[in-house]
Amino acid sequence: MSSNLSRKKLPVRRLLAERYLLIALIGYAASVLGVRLFLELTNYPRVEFGSLHIAHVIWGGLFLFVAALLPLMFANRWALFWSALLSGIGFGLFIDEIGKFITQSNDYFYPPRRTFNLRLFPSNCPGLSSISQTPAKHDQRRPVSYFQYVRRVSG
């Protein structure tokens, strides 16, 4: 009985977790590179409505919010795919504006932000490779329904 209780506290790795993490990393890299390319080609336009400036960090927050809601609302694998992709894109849009948030002058072109952006992406890759190389335990290899899980845990 006590082994069942301690078993509940251990995290269970999601099936295909490394695929979803890779999708999130690709979304992150694509959004940062896409924003940089778009802004460079269009000479850094500003989206303004009167005195309001709609920064792309706002869109990043919206994508992150939708990405958080999808797996809460839907149990399909497509929800996990879109959640991973939207979270990567949202984080990329957010992190691209890091220069505005780490300077007192609200400087989007703060030079060290490039270093930060370029180091953030590779720093996530070892985590992805360690997850994909860690073998799943026997009871993590096949998906189980909630009812099968309750039967296993309750004995």
Description:
The protein is mainly α. It is 69% helix and 3% strand. The chain has seven helices and two strands. It has a two-stranded antiparallel sheet. Strand 1 and strand 2 (52-53) form a beta hairpin. Helix 2 (17-41) runs parallel beside helix 4, helix 2 (17-41) runs antiparallel to helix 6 and helix 3 runs antiparallel to helix 4 (77-96). The radius of gyration is 20 Å and the shape is globular.
Gyration radius, in Å: 20 Å
Enumerate the strands of the largest sheet in spatial order, edge to edge or round the barrel.
1-2
The structural class is mainly alpha
Strand content: under 5%
Low-confidence stretches: none
Give the total of beta strands. Answer: 2
Number of helices: 7
The overall average pLDDT, rounded, is 77
Please give the alpha-carbon distance between the first and last residues: 8 Å
Quick rundown:
By secondary structure, this protein is mainly alpha-helical. It is 69% helix and 3% strand. It has a two-stranded antiparallel sheet.
